[in-house]
Amino acid sequence: MTTLQLPLQFLEQPTAAGTRDPWLLVLMHGVGSNEQDLFGLARLMPPQFHVLSLRAPYVLTPGSYAWFEFEVLPDGQRRIDEDQERESRFLVGEMLASASAQLGIPPERVVVGGFSQGGIMALSLLLTRPASMRAAMVWHSRLLPQVLPQVAAPEAFEGKSLWVSHGSADNVIPPAAAQATRELARGLPLALAGSDFPGGHEIRPTELQGTLAWLQSLTAAH
Question: Among 127, 138, 140, which residue's Cα sits nearest to residue 166?
């Protein structure tokens, strides 16, 4: 039974017993999924991490949730519900602060990650609230143009890290989206890692192995 009181539904896996200087890893699922999805990866994460897998706040159908709703226009562009996106980003930011305080884990040992729409949330949080985390982990996702005017000052990204990985044959969010994210990141003083991997809109074993090695390197460097 959890003792955490947070503004979003979640599943959790505590750190290994006796862990000194624990880390917090927050995972956010893609559109149409739920907190069970990425929680299946929790057992694979480095043992220093207290893992929280969140449920997005907007119900699409029973068991199916979104961080924000969107429509695909005839030209292929996506029009998002900007109010929902802002509200979700605010809620996740509040949840981060609350979980960090309740677990006694400072922002410099917090990593926020997600797949697809969950990755959008993780990236947007890093860009707009870098002081709340050490790093963001972005799988098969994209940068929201609506977030660009809110990106923090460059000096706020000193010491931060970003993992960006994508499927080379992703037909849901094209690989060009990951390249756009990397181009923005290269203009900031943060450590960028990750690459494109063979496959579509899914996390393949080699991609997961690379991500886990990156997470382990963060804890080792701290």
Answer: 140
For 30-61, how does the pLDDT look when each residue is reduced to its tens digit (9 = 90+)? 999 999 999 999 999 999 999 999 999 999 99
- 140, 169 in Cβ contact below 8 A? no
Specify the pTM: 0.94
Residue 203: Cβ within 10 Å count: 17
How buried is residue 18: exposed, middle or buried, by Cβ count under 10 Å (0-12/13-18/19+)? Answer: exposed
CA distance 4 to 57: 18
Place of tokens 């880390």: 23
H helices of the chain, where? 36-39, 82-103, 117-128, 175-186, 205-221
| Phi, psi dihedral angles at 12 (to 5 degrees) | -140, 150
Question: Which two three-digit tokens encode residue 71?
Answer: 């429509």
- Which residue blocks in 61-174 are alpha helix, DSSP H? 82-103, 117-128
Helix (H, G, I), strand (E, B) or coil at 192: strand
